[in-house]
Amino acid sequence: MAQLQTDKALLARQRVRRSRRARADLADTGGLGDYAEHEPDSTSNLFDKTETATKLPAPEDVPVARYVINHDKQTYADKTTVVANAIGAAIHPLPVLTAEGNGRGGGDLREGSITGHTTLVGTWARDRITVADIVPDGYQALEVDLIEPW
User: Fold this and answer.
1) Containing H/E element for 76?
2) Cα(124)–Cα(70) distance, rounded to whole angstroms?
3) Model confidence over 8-34: pLDDT tens digits?
4) pTM of the entire structure?
5) Total domain count, the chain
6) Is residue 2 in a domain?
7) How far apart are CA 45 and CA 35, in angstroms?
8) Cβ–Cβ < 8 Å for 145, 81
């Protein structure tokens, strides 16, 4: 009887994990991972909190800016210098730099799955970030050279 209850609990946890993975595949979570740390004084993380967040309609006309700017670190990534792989696919710097929970689940960005400075992954998580066509004075360029070889 105890083994049956343990098996049921294991199956329930696996269903929750599959559900979370499906949500992660379908939702644009801005780099938040379902394996991210829990929020302080909470039993959930930012990914979980997206379940109850107010969904806003996408704006009709959105300008596309060249630079992704981190105001906390006074650095920026130039999207025009992101390197593409052999089939022409490039990794956008924003989800890479703001990733949380990297190394804890499928789809992780780590040595072996990508090349380049893998230590950059998640270094901008929770920082104040904007996009613009002009970089503020005194900000330093960040080389984002991550490539998925596939």
Assistant:
1) strand 75-78
2) 7
3) 554 455 554 444 444 444 343 344 556
4) 0.63
5) 1
6) no
7) 8
8) no
